[in-house]
Amino acid sequence: MSRPKEPRRPAPPPGLLIVDKPAGMTSHDVVARARRIMGTRKVGHAGTLDPMATGVLVLGIERATKLLGHLALDRKTYLATLSLGRSTTTDDAEGEPLAGNDAASETLAAVTDEQIADGIAALTGDIQQVPSAVSAVKIDGKRAYARVRAGEDVVLPPRPVTVHRFDVLGVRREEDRIELDAIVECSSGTYVRALARDLGAGLGVGGHLKALRRTTVGPFTLARARTLDQLEEKPELSLDLDAAVAAAFPRRDLDAATAKAVQYGRRIPAAGIDGTYGLFAPDGHVLALASDTEGVTRSVVVLLPA
Where in the numbering of this chain does the Pseudouridine synthase II N-terminal domain appear (predicted)? Predict the structure, then answer.
């Protein structure tokens, strides 16, 4: 006799998971585990974290994956440990030391706190940053790290980024290194390991990133994040679809007639709201993401069609 089929697990409701990513996992690894935990293939992430990094990773579940490309996640905060005295092939602790690049102990001892502060000041504000060679930046359609692994000599052009805050929280001086604990608030696309590299280069001693923890991504913080083990025990959303849009976008509440028009794909008068915003029905459910163009509101993503 054939075994009876197990009842199919119902799809989870749409929304966001705010995960506290552990060290040693890629963002794709986290997505794969979240798919198993939540019982759906429809899981995506907004913005990667390097395997060595921990902290906030935003995942979209079911229809909420449509939000990911529209989330304003352009401001991020990190707790970082920077190690001065050695450069590595990857600008972080996972890379190999660059030959002949270790600073002598007397050279390190000569680096003053004032010089460190000046170096940090030069890397704060609107700057031009060369991404790490092993970054995910694409060159002619191929990731830079893939070209490096293939043996290519990769030199990336500098690009504009903004470091809103780069504050030292503590300094530890050892014979072979100076370690800085810092808080970095920066724009999307900023590489904290490139900041460590450039600070060390500016001081003439080399540098790399020893540890990194992301504490905020846009409006999402560690306070709402849960570990994968916690999700295993209690697989539920951090924010349902309505709460996710309300947290991440400006809100426009509609009357019943206007809400119906939106659900049927009709245009409605503009609201005068800048950028992308959420359209909410009288019952509080989000209908769509929209933006104003030429005096009318157009749906960018329909989330609850008629």
Answer: 35-192
